[in-house]
Design a protein that fits this description.
This protein is mostly helical. The chain has a domain at 56-154: Up-down Bundle (Growth Hormone, Chain: A). Helices cover 77% and strands 0% of the residues. The chain has helices spanning 2-20, 43-77, 81-109, 111-130, 135-163, 170-173. 24% of the residues are buried.
Length: 177
Amino acid sequence: MKRENATRERADRTRQNHHNVKSDLRHPSDNQGIAPSPGTYNASIYLVAGIAALGGLLVGYNTGVISGAILFIQKDFHLNGTQEEIAVSTGLMGAIIGALCAGPMNDALGRKRTLMLLAIIFIIGSALTAMAPTYEFFLACRIFVGFGFGATAGVGPVYLSEVAPANLPDLLRSSSQ
């Protein structure tokens, strides 16, 4: 009986202490210095979200644009059917590699730096792909660009969810879709 009372008293004290302590594990946007007050329009948040959401657009665009470009690529490099299939799918092979590397890149560089690096990869890779002198170089560039858009598909939504204030609609957080 004595033991049960002591256990109850300890549990009550723990509950009281737990309710009196404020948690340090709050969402960064709960800080009024970062987040606008409810109903306040903050254009910079929408700008950041729009730019980060372009990553989702690039994934779809790059995957779809190859279907129209393959006609010209086939003529330039004199490809057979198998080579055309490989040319189309190499971007997705790079995307698989990029998606697998996105997590470690986030941990090492942070979300913002990772997105900037991926944008540079995408720009350089796209320019090199457009100027590819040989089929093999074209495939290497497609893998490189695929790495960029595959990793962006993993990094962009996470970054958006972190920068979106808690008082803004979920539409901002899901804008990469």
